[in-house]
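ugh ok fine here u go
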Amino acid sequence: MALFSKKNKECAPENSAVMPARVGDKELFRLSGMPQVCERELYSKLREQVPIIDACIGKIIRLAGGFEVVAEDERFQPMLDEFSKSVRIGASGQSLQTFVDSYLDSLLTYGCALGEIVYDTDMRGICGVYLAPVKSLEVKEGKKPFTREYFVGRGAQATKIKHRENLVFTALNPSPDNPCGTSVLRGLPGLSSILLRIYESIGQNFDRVGNVRYAVTYKPSGDGADKAFARERAMQIAREWSAGMSAAKNGEIRDFVAVGDVAIKVIGADNQIIDTEIPVKQILEQLVAKLGIPPFLLGLSWSTTERMSSQQTDILTSELEYYRRLLAPAIEKICTAFLRLVGCAEGVHIRWDNINLQDESELANARLNNAKARAIELENARNEIGA
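structure:
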């Protein structure tokens, strides 16, 4: 585990371009020429502060479904199945499915995922697969064509990772300028900042208007004695009112009795709280469109038709198949390395589960319709021959 022995270091505030904008007691962040290391830290904060973003990524991971690794040489299939179920993943995980779930989580959140195949001391077996933290990872083009170099840290403290043959790396939407990949959360910090400001304002408005406060006004009469003792009577009214409100918190009901011209009004009862449904919906539409999850899967009751929901589901299926294609090389490399150690020269292929039961039903209906069409064609052929 020497490749990733150094812990991730926090982004230095004096060198970073993270610009905090305080709203109440919360800190929101925006991108302004931010280094990639700090940008990944921002994406982690986004998932913590905006639940719908975290829910979208979680649903994508679960909807990606399970898989089965099939060895081309059937004699090694039982050993490969046992390896897939029992291989250790990091400090607390087990099975290749656990690795794929965490690997996809990193891929979606940070735009890249990195793992290391850990061999035992005599290189005769695989101890496990280590999922590396990528917040401080930097990928550059190698000196030779079609090669990559990996660095942990940044600046003068960056350390080059050796033994690249043991690494498993995947980048999401890489480009020549950014071979490390692009997160699906890119472009969302600004919208998320506005959304959190709206929610913060809603809370402040309810503290000001929704939490009822009272104004107790005592007006002395024209009597001289009443004016002389106005201060003492006002203090007595204040004590009794405070005692009555404190008793109400404990479930005790007390009547408030006062003599003279005493008026009690609710502060802020006439104010109207601004309707935030439309701006919040507009921002959520942008978030959902970027993450590619149909709204009804997130419990958002937006008006939609059955045909539109079916089309959204088809689009989601194509997105999930794209992520599966990205995950396949990493799974194949790990399983192929295991088969080489047990003496198998053949490769593997991955058999993915159907995404949901609706796909199973549609495939079954398609097979039934094909069978009926085939039967009708055979019947017509026999009738033509008999004629």
